[in-house]
Design a protein that fits this description.
Strands 2-1-3-4-6-5-7 form a 7-stranded mixed β-sheet, sandwiched between helices. Helix 1 crosses helix 8. It has one domain: Thiamin diphosphate (ThDP)-binding fold, Pyr/PP domains (Rossmann fold, 3-Layer(aba) Sandwich). By secondary structure, it is an alpha/beta fold. Helices cover 37% and strands 15% of the residues. The chain contains 10 helices and 7 strands.
Length: 257
Amino acid sequence: MSQLSTQIPEGYVKVFSRPRSLSDAKYTYCPGCHHGIIGRLIAEAIDELGIQERAVGVAPVGCAVFLFRFYNVDFVQAAHGRACAVATGLKRASPNLIVFTYQGDGDLAAIGTAETVHAANRGENFTVIFVNNQIYGMTGGEMAPTTLPGQRTVTCPEGRDVKLTGHPLKVSEMLAQLDGPVYITRQAVYDARHIQMAKKAILKAFRNQAEGKGFSLVEIVADCPTNFQMSPVEANRWVVEKALQYFPLGDLKVKED
């Protein structure tokens, strides 16, 4: 069987390559899932800032549970919802590390609400990547704190009733009211332009930490084609037409020196 050539054809210029901070392991995410894009952006940011040897990720339960396989950086596995507590301990014990958590909405905004809020309020000097796909992804598609009004899940098959379960939790707006955080932003990765904007936000969040400024959170509104029971194209459209109407993009807090 012939192998694909790695040589660059004459007249072509290589402008893109696999980040050094990503391992050779294949992603286990579902087709069309935005986790793969977000994970690559983090690796690109680590490479560009030259922090690979100092970077330590914290992955909790959820679709992030196997994150340690995909990166050539150190990782710590946290109990469900406890990533911010673990990150606090890591950063305080070794302030020279660049510590980041990677958390879904069920983990960060439900099981880990207290850890998230208090780490932000204390202004802990680490970075949070918060993936908001409006559903519990790994455990079967249950309603999450960020599930939209009327959105159907396996635990609310008729659609989320806000009179019964309350309104979707706007984590970034809530944390932006606290004095501790220095940078709170909401981004998306549904097209090339927004992918680049999300990368800039991740770079800024890491730089804030490297400069000792304090707590930064980058929320990324994402899709979940499998649990939405949609094609990747339809799920991408859902993000634009539905999710972003409730979770508008942009910086919610930028504290400059």
